[in-house]
Each structure stands twice: as structure tokens, then as C-alpha cells.
Amino acid sequence: MKIIVSLTDNRPEPWIEGLKAELPDAQIEPWQPGAAQADHAVVWVPPQQLLDEQPGLRGLFNIGAGVDALLKLKVPAHTRIVRLDDAGMSVQMAEYVCHTLIRHFREFDVYEADAREGRWSYRKPKLRRDFPVGIMGLGVLGERVAKAVAQFGFPVLGWSRSPKAIDGVKVFSGEAQFDEFLSSTRVLVNLLPLTEATRGILNRHTLGKLKPGGYLISIARGAHMVEDDLIPMLDAGQLAGATLDVFQVEPLPAEHPFWRHPKIVVTPHASARTLREESISQIAGKIRAMEQGLPVSGVVDPIRGY
């Protein structure tokens, strides 16, 4: 069995060494143009040339949860695209969302600003029941985030394309229930996969349906948001604020107004990082299962886009 590794913006050597330890009988090497045919490829944003030269690939293993970049490429019909199920990302997402939510709810940003000015201030406590949190996307990551938020006593809602059942979460599904979900939400967290159906889903129309004083936490993909719609809504008071981790262009250009807007917190696509050791172990397990003809989790449906 031969495995090739092609990781844009990542050094392949640590991944190759880790995969060799997990799969000692496999031939594992970095992909180079003109390489001999392989059985599987471990990739992150691979070039189209790799797929053109490797028509016999049985498995294309992505080192992240989002596969939108792969679905832009021409992948052989028989090649299964496989994403990571979690590999340590869901707990990081939960940490990020809970930190952001509590910072906003408890107004710690106001305390921080007052402290810089030497002011001893007081903020009237708010009620959690007035801050229902809506999670868009209820896959592995979204479910973990929803359960973590619920532990802090906030009402938690979830929306997904197909019906789900999660203890402690009021779940909505499909286009028919989307508006009801939005109008019941005050703090909106986006964890949807990026597909043609979800591109631009965070816009003036949808964000305008949130409860008064709505707050946006955007941590999935930058292309989910129509960026030009956000600042006018913040300036008009339709939204109380936003924490943004993903953007249309990354790194976010230095001249972009998001950097300087007082109601926007910017982080550099840091809500969850791929943990290499956990990812290698999971990918190796999926490859072993595929080689043995066993079911493999995380296989992507190219039609749905996730």
C-alpha cells in the first residue's frame, strides 16, 4: 500500500513520520509531480495536478473538517473524500464559543476598557434566559459546542439541514424552520459546512431576524458571511457586536475595517487547530478500515458538500 502526502502551508515530514509509525507496512512519501501511482493521499488544499496524475486513488484524506477546498477540484468519481471527524477540534471550538459568549454576556469587554482608564465600574447582572444561543450546524463540532454552552445555563437552540435530537437543545431543521430558529436566537454561532447553499448565509436579511441586541460568532468559513452587510448593522444598533475568526480573504488585510471597529473582535482563524497526533491516528484508522472493506466515518457526499 502506497500513501502520498501533500500539505499546502504545512511541513509534510512530521505527518509522514507519524503515519509510518501507525502504518509500518505502508510506503509513505511526499507527493511530487510525476510520482508513481498511490492508493491513498493525505492532503490539505492539494493542487489539481495531484488528482490528475493519481487517477487510481481510493481514498483522499483531508487533515481538517472542512472540505470545501477539495470539492472545488476535479476528483475522480471512484475516489472517496474523507474528512476528520474531530481530532481535538470540537473541544477547542467549545472553548472558543463559551469564552466569547461569556465575555459578551458578562460584559468583560466593558470592564477591560474601564480598567484601562482606571475606572471602578459596576454592570447590572443580566439573565441567561434573555440570551438564547443558536448553533447553526449540528455535526460533530456543533453538537459539542451546543452541549458545552448548555452547561452554563443558557437556552440552546440548534439548526441543521436534517432533523437531529440533542439532549438539552431545542432543534430546528430545514428551510421551513430556519426563520423561527433565527427569531428565537440572540447569540448566533455559525458552524455550518461551506456549500453553495450556505455561501453568504450570514447577511443583512438573516442577521436582521435575530432577537434585538443580536451577537454573531463566526467560526466556520469566511465565505458564509456577506462582509459588507455587517458594519452597517452594527452601526445602526441592529447587532450588539460580533466575534469573527474567519474571513473572505485570509490573512485579513491590514486595511480592512473589521480590525478597527469597536464592536468587532478579530481572531486569526484560531478557534480550532488541527492536532497532528490525534489526526494522524484517526486517518490511519480510517485507512486501515478502508483497506479491510469496513465502514469508514467522515466520507463526504459531493452532492451535499459535507
Give a written overview of the molecule.
The chain has helices at residues 12-22, 48-53, 68-71, 89-105, 108-116, 140-150, 178-183, 204-207, 227-235, 276-291, and strands spanning 2-7, 27-30, 40-44, 59-62, 80-82, 133-136, 156-160, 170-173, 187-190, 214-218, 239-244, 264-266. It is an alpha/beta fold and 306 residues long. It starts with a strand and ends in a 15-residue tail after the last helix. It contains ten helices and twelve strands. The strands form two sheets. The protein has a seven-stranded parallel β-sheet. A five-stranded parallel β-sheet has the order 2-1-3-4-5, covered by helices on one side. It has two domains: 2-87 and 274-291, Rossmann fold (3-Layer(aba) Sandwich), CATH 3.40.50; 89-266, Rossmann fold.
Describe the structure concisely.
With 306 residues, this protein is an alpha/beta fold. It is built from 10 helices and 12 strands.
Note the main attributes of this structure.
306 residues, alpha/beta, Rossmann fold, 2 domains, seven-stranded parallel β-sheet, five-stranded parallel β-sheet, 17% strand
